[in-house]
Automatic annotation (TrEMBL):
Annotated Pfam families: MSSS, MutS_V, Smr
Protein name as annotated: Endonuclease MutS2
Family: Belongs to the DNA mismatch repair MutS family. MutS2 subfamily.
EC number assigned by the record: 3.1.-.-, 3.6.4.-
Keyword match Endoplasmic reticulum: no
Keywords: ATP-binding, Coiled coil, DNA-binding, Endonuclease, Hydrolase, Nuclease, Nucleotide-binding, RNA-binding, rRNA-binding
Gene Ontology terms for molecular function: ATP binding; ATP hydrolysis activity; ATP-dependent DNA damage sensor activity; endonuclease activity; mismatched DNA binding; ribosomal large subunit binding; rRNA binding
Annotated ATP binding sites: G314, A315, N316, A317, G318, G319, K320, T321
HAMAP family to which the protein is assigned, alphabetical: MutS2
């Protein structure tokens, strides 16, 4: 368990948020935390191997995996419960994303039963978790409801038409979810039925005749049947999901695990991270803190196995604290994913814990000074530290008398060295630097400082203690020239030490550059040697293949020629020699000569092609085929004397003219696709508030969509108003040959404020 304060100081969660940015599921995103830190090397390698595989796939297929919605809720229901519609819809969405993962992995993850379940959910449930009205089992029930309502409407209209003296008007009314008829109070005795209410004036009674009662009941029963069928559909799907819970749980865990490694792989590619080797010593090459982005200055730090303590010194704001935090952060990233943003060859040990004492920690409310805070942390760290601990100490001993502070720092470092811990400490104390110089297992390192610009370069110089450069920084901050001059005079003989250290630093940098240059040249020679060997093997293989193919072709020709020769000999030896036999012999000889000439011309043509390719005048930007393997590359630079710098993928190589031939332009493949442009129609079209022109334009689009999607009917809500919309709509529908019928809605469904349209 890594110390919580260390996680905060190192801003690990902020770095992991960069990884979580690539997540494809919420559960995987929630799993990318410090809980993944492990000191199990086998587990680290297992994760790193998976990430390596995914990196290769992403480079080929891109980040092409769809997002997976959470399905955690389905695992919490009791056995007898029907799932909520939204949870069922989530399962459908989850399964719908599986094909993108299967395509990415080139691996089958779900069987036909789960595919059928996905299709069933897609057919049955909408995004609000409701059963779709277009479900095949609901269609006949909705049709039955409409037919029953139609009979009820016909009965109501016929009744009112036949009782004109008793009817208040010819429109049925919808009361208490039932259709009733408006009857004049004084004509109550002429109509047998139940009174469902009256108008405010009392002059109209709303009566439900006995026959209408039965029709209303039939409508209610038909609608209840729809509700029961929807419940049955939900229950059936719930049972199917429940029967596949184990498979869904496996898929959920598989996707979560995949997401952790997939997100890490995307992070690795984006941040140009590399796999960290396992080692007993620290070796970081051009390490870049991921939170600094393009502003990050790469740091390189290589320690031998015996070095257990590094004393970092140098100018304020020179990068000491960031550098040692980078080392610790990369340690944690390595123990999560096995990767970190640095260069190949970087290696790190495995630590069981990381401790930090960074910042002043001053607290007025708790009566804590800077020094008290440091000592409180250090007391805790020294109790917990062991040989597998990595410890960062920032300005230990500051905030008190320098002599006592440096003495205490040295004593604490010696104590931690006895425990075998690995320690990074920043300090300005000369006595601490001197102690590191004279003590085994300890090493000085400094942050480089540019004397000309009086600015830090943020680069680590191992083996040399650094100066604080307080006077240079004070001058840059605007302190007066008089004060700066007096300070330099007060510095006295110490300036000689500074000059000596600067000279050593310059020689050290020159030596580093020379070593780096030699190392790069060595790598280039090794790479060229391997490539030459590969080309040689490829040429030998091609030569054997061509020889074999030539032998096969020659044997076929010889067998054919032998049979034909035998036949000619037989013809000549039997019977008399005539002109036809002589002609056949001459034709055979001519055929042999033609074959020889054809072979000669082909060889000559190949030689000419080879000569032409060698003599081709290549220019920068030309596409070429390189070597016998014909790898496609681009000419970057003409180096002269028949040599060219060529880019092959991410590799730059120097090749001779003989190793290149012009590349044909790649054939451009065209593909075409089509899609239906018609807008998907709605069952109910609301045009209230639109002008007649806008309404007819919208209606035209709706009619087109109905024909494309084979919708048999829909309704238009236009309201009562002054009748302009309803009349205009009806006039328009009358002219449409695809419209079979149209009429006002039933009273309970909007009456004359709504129109039904049938195809």
């Amino acid at each position: 368990m890594i110390n919580k304060q260390a996680l905060i100081d190192l801003e690990l969660d902020s770095v992991l948020s960069l990884v979580r940015h690539h997540s494809i599921c919420s559960k995987g995103k929630e799993s990318i935390t410090e809980s993944l830190i492990t000191d199990n090397l086998s587990l680290i390698n297992e994760r790193a191997n998976k990430i390596d595989e995914l990196i290769a796939l992403i480079k080929i297929k891109g980040e092409s995996v769809n997002y997976f919605v959470a399905i955690d809720n389905i695992f919490t229901y009791k056995n007898s419960a029907s799932f909520d519609g939204k949870d069922i819809y989530s399962v459908g969405c989850f399964l719908s994303a599986i094909p993108s993962l299967e395509a990415f992995l080139s691996k089958e993850l779900i069987d036909k039963d789960l595919i059928e379940l996905k299709d069933n959910i897609s057919l049955s449930i909408d995004e609000d978790g409701l059963v779709k009205e277009t479900h095949p089992l609901l269609y006949p029930l909705y049709k039955k409801v409409e037919e029953t309502k139609q009979r009820r409407q016909i009965y109501s209209q016929n009744f009112l038409s036949s009782h004109l003296d008793a009817a208040q008007n010819l429109n049925a009314v919808y009361r208490n979810e039932r259709v009733v008829l408006p009857i004049k109070r004084e004509k109550r005795g002429d109509v047998e039925g139940y009174i469902q209410g009256s108008s405010q004036s009392g002059g109209t009674l709303f009566i439900e005749p006995f026959e209408l009662v039965e029709l209303n009941n039939q409508v209610v029963l038909a609608e209840e049947e729809i509700i029961r069928m929807k419940q049955k559909i939900l229950l059936d799907i719930s049972l199917k999901i429940r029967s596949h819970l184990d498979a869904l749980r496996y898929l959920d865990e598989f996707v979560t695990d995949f997401d952790i490694h997939y997100s890490a792989a995307c992070f690795v590619i984006k941040n140009k991270a590399v796999r960290i080797e396992s080692s007993k010593s620290i070796k970081l090459i051009n390490a870049r803190h991921p939170l600094l982005g393009k502003k990050a200055v790469p740091i390189t730090l290589c320690l031998d196995e015996s070095t257990k303590c590094v004393v970092l010194s140098g100018a304020n704001a020179g990068g000491k604290t960031v550098s040692m935090k980078t080392v610790a952060l990369f340690t944690l990233l390595n123990q999560i994913f096995g990767f970190a943003p640095c260069e190949e060859g970087s290696a790190l040990p495995i630590y069981s814990n990381v401790y930090t004492d960074i910042g002043d920690g001053q607290s007025i409310s708790e009566n804590f000074s800077t020094f008290s805070h440091h000592m409180s942390n250090v007391a805790y760290i020294t109790k917990k530290a062991d040989e597998s601990s990595l410890i960062l100490l920032d300005e230990l001993g500051s905030g008190t008398d320098p002599q006592e502070g440096s003495a205490l720092t040295i004593a604490l470092l010696d104590s931690l060295m006895k425990k075998g811990s690995t320690v990074f400490i920043t300090s300005h104390y000369s006595t601490v630097k001197m102690h590191a110089y004279n003590t085994d297992f300890m090493m000085n390192a400094s942050m480089e400082f540019d004397e000309r610009s009086s600015m830090p370069t943020y680069k680590i110089i191992p083996g040399l203690p650094g100066e604080s450069h307080a006077i240079e920084i004070a001058k840059r901050m605007g302190v007066s020239k008089e004060v700066i001059a007096a300070a330099k005079e007060n510095l006295g003989s110490t300036a000689n030490v500074t000059k000596l250290m600067n000279e050593l630093s310059g020689k050290n940098r020159a030596l580093d550059r020379k070593i780096t240059q030699l190392e790069l040249e060595k790598r280039e020679l090794i790479k060229r040697e391997k490539e030459a060997e590969l080309i040689k093997l490829q040429n030998e293989s091609l030569e054997k293949k061509l020889r074999k193919e030539g032998d096969i072709e020659l044997n076929k020709f010889l067998n054919s020629a032998r049979k034909e020769l035998e036949r000619l000999v037989h013809d000549v030896s039997t019977g008399k020699l005539n002109s036809e036999k002589t002609k056949n012999v001459k034709q055979f000889i001519k055929k042999l000569e033609n074959k020889a000439n054809e072979t000669h011309e082909r060889v000559k043509s190949e030689e000419e092609e080879e000569i032409n390719s060698i003599e081709y005048d290549f220019k920068e930007g030309d596409e070429v085929l390189c070597g016998s393997y014909s790898r496609r590359g681009i000419i970057l630079k003409d180096l002269g004397k028949g040599r060219y710098q060529v880019a092959l993928d991410n590799i730059k190589m120097t090749l001779t003219k003989k190793e290149l031939q012009p590349a044909k332009k790649e054939e451009i493949k065209f593909s075409s696709s089509y899609k239906i442009s018609a807008v998907k129609p709605s069952l109910v079209m609301d045009v209230r508030g639109l002008t007649l022109k806008e309404t007819l334009e919208k209606l035209d689009t709706q009619l087109e969509g109905c024909l494309v999607y084979n919708l048999s009917s829909f309704s238009i809500i236009h309201g009562y108003g002054d009748g302009i919309l309803s009349r205009g709509i009806h006039e328009y529908l009358k002219k449409q040959k695809d419209v079979k019928d149209y009429r006002f809605a039933t009273p309970e469904d909007g009456g004359m404020g709504k129109t039904y349209v049938f195809f």
